[in-house]
């Protein structure tokens, strides 16, 4: 929990130093749980459940403006996955930071999805999946039957073999209008759930996957090159 009033009084000096240090290490920074800058859920100290918590306002644009004033147009990706209120959407828009789209979240047959590529705006980053998702092949293997039908209808690919199916989703991401497209290496390699990076809220077999020598072949490189060239990536 941040003491936002204190940070305001200091002109967000700690945040500016923190982001500046990150920019010394990385080309781009992904800020998790971006919606917490709009509002966050506060739970009283000592409570064992969230039953008596309440929403409190975050720093909003005052923090974003302080960062821009001090550091210029910082290269930030805003993690805005999940349920978003109108005020969070406004903050994301006003900040100018790109939000995230995840292809695996697109095919929910129960409701309309902002993650379907035809709904994207240019200022966003599309992923086939993140470190918290299964690989494309692992996800597709256990996809709900109705969601599977939706994906096949959307991409007209009911006859694509399982050994090639990940390429259809990779192509879908690359062909989108998103300014940036990120494809995890496991998806390019067509690996299953054994190559998943992380399963949230679990302990044990996380963050252990390593690429084996020889995985990056000339054939794979040529295929990636062909698609990135075709879609202007």
TrEMBL record:
It catalyses: Transfers a segment of a (1->4)-alpha-D-glucan to a new position in an acceptor, which may be glucose or a (1->4)-alpha-D-glucan. Keywords: Carbohydrate metabolism, Glycosyltransferase, Transferase. SUPFAM superfamilies: (Trans)glycosidases (SSF51445). Pfam families: Glyco_hydro_77 (PF02446). One of its GO terms (molecular function) is 4-alpha-glucanotransferase activity. It comes from the Bacteria. It is an enzyme of class 2 (transferase). InterPro entries: GH, Glyco_hydro_77. Transmembrane segments: none annotated. Gene3D superfamilies: Glycosidases (3.20.20.80). One of its GO terms (biological process) is carbohydrate metabolic process. Its EC number is 2.4.1.25. Belongs to the disproportionating enzyme family. PANTHER family: 4-ALPHA-GLUCANOTRANSFERASE DPE1, CHLOROPLASTIC/AMYLOPLASTIC (PTHR32438), 4-ALPHA-GLUCANOTRANSFERASE DPE1, CHLOROPLASTIC_AMYLOPLASTIC (PTHR32438:SF5). This is 4-alpha-glucanotransferase. It comes from Eubacterium ramulus.
């Amino acid at each position: 929990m941040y003491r936002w009033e204190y940070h305001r009084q200091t002109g967000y000096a700690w945040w500016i130093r923190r982001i500046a240090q990150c920019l010394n290490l990385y080309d781009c920074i992904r800020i998790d749980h971006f919606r917490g800058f709009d509002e966050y859920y506060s739970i009283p100290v000592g409570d064992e459940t969230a039953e008596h918590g309440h929403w409190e306002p975050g720093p909003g644009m005052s923090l974003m403006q302080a960062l821009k004033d001090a550091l210029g147009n910082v290269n930030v990706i805003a993690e805005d996955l999940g349920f978003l209120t109108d005020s969070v959407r406004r903050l994301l828009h006003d900040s100018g930071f790109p939000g995230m789209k995840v292809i695996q979240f697109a095919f929910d047959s129960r409701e309309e999805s902002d993650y379907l590529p035809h709904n994207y705006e240019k200022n966003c980053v599309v992923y086939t999946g993140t470190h918290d998702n299964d690989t494309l092949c692992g996800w597709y293997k256990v996809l709900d039957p109705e969601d599977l039908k939706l994906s096949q209808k959307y991409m007209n690919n009911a006859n694509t073999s399982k050994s090639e199916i990940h390429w259809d989703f990779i192509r879908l991401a690359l062909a989108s209008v998103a300014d940036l497209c990120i494809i995890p290496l496991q998806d390019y390699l067509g690996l299953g759930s054994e190559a998943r990076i992380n399963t949230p809220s679990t302990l044990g077999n996380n963050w252990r996957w390593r690429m084996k020598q020889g995985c990056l072949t000339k054939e794979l490189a040529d295929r990636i090159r062909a698609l990135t060239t075709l879609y202007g990536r």
